[in-house]
Amino acid sequence: MAHAHKLEIFRGLVKFKSNTQKIWGVLIFLAIVTAIEVVLGIYKPEVLMGNILGMKILNWIFIILTLVKAYYITWDFMHMRDETAGLRRAVVWTAIFLIIYLIFILLQEGGYVFRVYDEGFIKRDF
Fold first, then answer.
1. pLDDT by residue (tens digit) across 62-114?
2. Cα angle 2-6-8, degrees, rounded to a multiple of 5
3. Burial annotation 57-82 (CB, 10 A radius, 16+ → b, else e)
4. H or E segment and range at residue 105
5. Rounded-to-10 torsion of CA 23, 25, 26, 30
6. Per-residue confidence (pLDDT) for residue 4, from 0 to 100
7. Which of 12, 44, 45, 101 lies 20 to 30 angstroms, CA to CA, from 79?
8. CA torsion, points 98, 71, 92, 17, in degrees to nearest 10?
């Protein structure tokens, strides 16, 4: 027997009357987050060009917003909210860990390649 999907988002703060309304609500939320990313990418505010942990604040904002969108798409469109807590944790936290690991590797390798092009040969002691 099929069960109905929950028709609220943001942990119940916004409730919808039908699945169609919920899809439009999720679409609007994701569009707003994407629009923020696009506007920040076009204007690149000088305030956000400072460095934190070796990377510009603007880049951190892009990474965080991308993770928010990925989490939300998994949560609502892949119906993870309707699954058991163990399965949700196994899928979501594994994906988040792998994304963070990928970001770390890309930043490490990208920084090394940049320094090689900028300064020439670099010897690293690991």
1. 999 998 898 888 877 777 878 898 998 898 789 889 989 998 999 888 888 88
2. 165
3. ebbeeeeeeeeeeeebebbbeeebee
4. helix 85-119
5. 130
6. 63
7. 101
8. -170
* 8 Å CB contact between 22 and 39: no
Q: How far is CA 21 from CA 4, 16, 68, 93, 101, in A?
A: 15, 6, 21, 29, 36
Cβ atoms of 91 and 70 closer than 8 Å: no
Q: Identity (one letter) of the amino acid at 26?
A: V
Q: Would you put residue 52 in left (φ > 0), alpha (ψ -120 to 50) or beta? A: beta
Cα separation, 115 vs 121, in Å, equals 8
Q: Higher-confidence residue: 121 or 58?
A: 58
**Beta carbons within 10 angstroms of residue 89's beta carbon:** 12
The whole-model pTM stands at: 0.66
Place of tokens 């951190």: 60
DSSP-derived secondary structure for 26-69? HHHHHHHHHHHHHHHHHH--GGGGSEETTEEHHHHHHHHHHHHH
For the four alpha carbons of 116, 117, 118 and 121, in that order, the dihedral sign comes to positive
